[in-house]
Amino acid sequence: MQDLKRPVLAIKDLKVDFETATGPVNAVRGVDINVKPGETVAIVGESGSGKSQTLMAAMGLLASNGRTQGEVLYEDANILGLPAHQLNKVRGKKITMIFQEPMTSLDPLYTIGRQLAEPMVVHGGLSWKQAKVKALELLKLVNIPEPERKIKAYPYEMSGGQRQRVMIAMALANDPDVLIADEPTTALDVTTQAQILDLLADLQKRLGMAVIFITHDLGIVRRIADRVYVMKTGEVVESGETARIFTQPEHPYTRMLLDAEPTGHKPPVPDNTPVLLEAQKVDVEFVLEAGLFVPAHILRAVDNISFSLRRGQTLGIVGESGSGKSTLGRAVLNLLPAGGRVVFQGEVVSGKDRAAMRALRKDMQLIFQDPFGSLSPRMTVGQIISEGLLVHEPSLSARDRDQRACQALDEVSLDPAMRNRYPHEFSGGQRQRIAIARTMVLKPQFVVLDEPTSALDRTIQKQVVELLRGLQKAYDLTYLFISHDLAVVRALSDTVMVMQRGKVVEAGSVDDIFQAPQNAYTKELIGAAMLTQQQMMDTA
Amino acid sequence: MSVTTPDTADVPQRGRSLWDDARDRLLANKAAVASMIVLATIALLSAFGPILSPHDYDTVYRDYVKVPASLGAYPKSDQVEPAFEALVKRARLNLESYERVGDQVVAEVTSRRAIDPRSTRYIDRSDLFKNAALSDLADEDKRATLTADINYLHFYFGTDANGRDLMTRTFIAGRVSLTIGLLATVVAITIGVLYGATSGYLGGRADQLMMRVVDILYSLPFIFFVIMLVVFFGRNFILMFIAVGAVEWLDMARIVRGQTLTIKRQEYVQAAEAMGVADGGIVRRHIIPNTLGPVVVYMTLLVPKVILLESFLSFLGLGIQEPMTSWGVLISEGARNLQGSAWMLIFPSIFLTSTLFALNFIGDGLRDALDPKDR
Question: Is there a contact between B274 and A403 if contact means CB atoms under 8 Å apart?
Answer without folding.
Answer: no
